[in-house]
Amino acid sequence: MHSLVQPNAWVVLRLPNESLKILQVAPNTITSLPKIGTFPSNLLIGRPYYKTYELLDRLPGHKDSSLRIVAAAELHADTIAEENAAANPSLSANGGNDNEDGIPLGGDGVEYQLVGPDNEVIMRSNRETIDSSAHQTLTMAEIETLKREGTGAGKDLIAKLMASHLGIDQKTAFSLAKYKLLKTKKYLRRFTVLPVDVPTLTRWIAEEKDTGKILELREEMLALAGSWANVHFSSALPTQPDLAGGRWLVVDETGGLLVAALAERMGILYPLSPDDAMSIQEAEETETPQHNDRPLATSSTLTLVHANAQPNVSLLKYFSYDPTTASPATPTPHPLSTHLHTLSWLQLVSPSLDTTYSTAIPLLTSEELSSLKSGKRGTYYRKLRRHTRVKNIVTSTRAGNFDGLVVASHMDPVSILRHTIPLLRGGAQVSIYSPTIEPLVALADVYSTSRRTAFIQAPPQSFLALLPDPGPNSTPVTSSVPAADPNPTTSPPLEQPPARNPDTWPGSPDFPLNPTLLLSTSVQSCRLRPWQVLPGRTHPSMTGKGGAEGYLFTATRVVPARGRVEARGKFVKRRVELQGAARAGAPREGRGADGKNGEAVKRAADGDEIGSGDGEPTVKRQKNVSPPALGKGIEETITGRDERR
Predict the structure, then answer these.
(1) What pLDDT does 60 receive?
(2) Where in the cell is it found (predicted)?
(3) Are 140 and 128 in contact (CB under 8 A)?
(4) How far is residue 607's CA from residue 601's CA, in Å, rounded to a whole number?
(5) Using CB atoms within 10 A as the burial measure, which of 202, 219, 354, 481 is most buried?
(6) Are β-strands 402-408 and 247-252 bridged in parallel, bridged antiparallel, or unpaired?
(7) Distance CA 346, CA 369 (A)
(8) What is the residue-wise DSSP string for 162-201?
(9) Chain mean position to CA 423
């Protein structure tokens, strides 16, 4: 993020009444703020963020106002005065009479909050105060005239309003500060310049725009979705810069707000500074001076799956990214031009039906290119780049091996996971947001423990048909998903028959999805509520905005074992007992007292076969090893002549 306001950048203006306004700082234009005034936008370009500006009085012959940076001491003058007064108290409230509640009373018996040493009234309580418009002596016409004059950036108007109020001496310290704050928010001509980030943009949409367009997402839910999906920043390795970071699959129907939140966590949301862009361009020209096309990024990428012909990421314009004009071939490209990959559901599920993917662009020779006009030559290169980009994105996406899945959509989560779960690697995190809880509860039931147990004990026949046929002597298989190259150079032929992959099982009425592919499923919610914290008046803010609560489904992708599972147990409990008895040498039931049976037991424990003699038991160890598929271990049988054994 830039520290200075750049030309044509989008900024947030925080007005005195705490409302937000987002506008673009275009050079050589006039910026107009309702109820505040107008000023040239060039006065903001090149200035730092987080500064508070005040509109000065218009000079004679000028239509617009100039700006003045308000110092921090002036902004916090009231707070500084209160701290100084608390540190150096000059007045005391130890005089006057007290009532039975301990509240000081004046000489006239009127209740006061603070009384001086000589019984003079310093501050009156507001119990007897009646707030009425009749206390203000200024008329609306006079107030409008003062507003049009706009002297002192509104401070003169506020001073006259307070001076002309008849009941100002009856207000308590709290009510007086509240009255001054209300007039300051209404008439003061100031604003603060802030950068556009995801929390500020989310708050602006929630307060000023229609929250239904972003599925009523809040900043805390955006943070939870990115955190549970393990979306993070990864710096490039010096030796292998293409292997740093991760790859996440995104289904976003919030106008690009979810993509912006994830890109901000990955460090690819904001455009590069001119110095960084120039250094990158010089390095690329040194390595590859023959062309200007930059290949798509292979790490720290977001693959956006959308339902329309073009993705709806209109909110990304506030971060200086426009998908219609952004191109990796530009001198200073936006990081999202190479790190954001977009494809439609048709290109993901059935790419052969998509004309952009299936229609190949023939390669022209140098003679044919030279014979074309400049306009047709540019059109040819544009179509060729578009076809190559779509083909590479579709091929890499269908290869899978993504590190996570983040969803915020109106679509059924079951239908989304049916096509996206096979694209995730083992250990990938899944995070799905929904304004209501019902779709997520139904999805959690699909991956419940009881349904998973029933699926393992009696899998459907359609699922068993997709399992590979292991031979009688084949080795166990641990995974049916082969490790695929995330960036293959050539796409597989579309007409080849689909491989027998159990992860792509379409489901059945009893099992809409394979319940063994996701574990640790949970549904949670989070909401940030502002509170008013005052002595005796602490409660949630009464002006908070309602709306959908919002819920989040989280899970972990696992790769179940395929094929035969060998598990052989060693039942050595009986053998340990025999060895302990042999070492002790104690006679057991059915044995003689002469100790001969102890030697027989010891030999039996060592695995020897002992014949039967007169008065001695017959101990025979039989090894009954079943085939590996049955998974049985060693059985020991001990038979004796003594019936008590």
Answers:
(1) 78
(2) Nucleus
(3) no
(4) 10
(5) 202
(6) parallel
(7) 33
(8) HHTBTTGGG--HHHHHHHHHHHHHHH--EEEEEE--HHHH
(9) 20
**Helix 438-446 and helix 413-420: axis angle, to 10°?**
40
The H or E element containing residue 84 is helix 77-87
Alpha-carbon gap, residue 220 to 40, rounded angstroms: 36
- In the beta sheet, which residues pair with residue 615? none
* Lowest mean pLDDT segment, chosen from 94-103, 431-440, 441-450: 94-103
Burial 10-30 (b: 16+ CB within 10 A, else e): bbbbbbbeeebbbeebeeeee
Check the CA dihedral 148-153-158-163 and report its sign.
Answer: negative
- Nearest Cα to 338, choosing from 286, 293, 383, 288? 293
Residue 124 forms beta bridges with which residues?
112
Tokens encoding 643: 């019936």
Torsion sign over Cα 102, 106, 108, 111: negative
The dihedral formed by the CA atoms of 7, 8, 9 and 11, expressed in degrees to the nearest 10: 100
Instruction: Taking residues 194-203, report their average pLDDT.
Output: 95
Q: Are 8 and 25 in contact (CB under 8 A)?
A: yes
Helix axes 198-208, 257-266, angle to 10 degrees: 160
607: left (phi over 0), alpha (psi -120 to 50) or beta: left
Distance CA 171, CA 124 (A): 6
Q: What is the secondary structure of 355-392 as a DSSP string?
A: HHHHSPPPPPPHHHHHHS-HHHHHHHHHHHHHHHHHHH
3-class SS letters over 509-578: CCCCCCCCCEEEEEEECCCCCCEECCCCCCEECCCCCCCCCCEEEEEEECCCCECCCCCCCCCCHHHHHH
Give me the half-sphere count of Cα atoms (radius 13 Å) on the Cβ side of residue 102.
Answer: 0
Task: Give the residue, 358 or 546, on which the prediction is more confident.
Answer: 358
Identity of the residue numbered 197:
D
What was the pLDDT predicted at 542?
A: 84
pLDDT one-digit tens code per residue, 119-143: 555 555 555 555 556 566 677 776 6
Q: Report the residue count for the chain.
A: 645
Nearest to 220 by CA among 564, 528, 572: 528
DSSP reduced 3-state for 82: helix
Phi and psi, residue 257, nearest 5°: -70, -40
The Cα–Cα gap between 221 and 250 comes to 16
Half-sphere exposure of 79 (CA within 13 A, CB side): 5
Q: Give the strand pairing for 424-434 and 402-408.
A: parallel
Residue 476 has pLDDT above 50, yes or no: no
* CA distance to 133, 143, 156, 599, per residue, from 138 (Å): 10, 7, 13, 118
Compute CA 553 distance to the chain's CA centroid, rounded to the nearest angstrom: 12
Tokens coding 86: 């608390």
Return the closest-CA partner of residue 320 out of 302, 335, 340. 335
DSSP state of 631: T
How far apart CA 568 and CA 633 sit, in angstroms, is: 6
How far, in Å, CA of 282 to CA of 604, rounded? 82
Distance, CA of 97 to CA of 91 (rounded, Å): 17
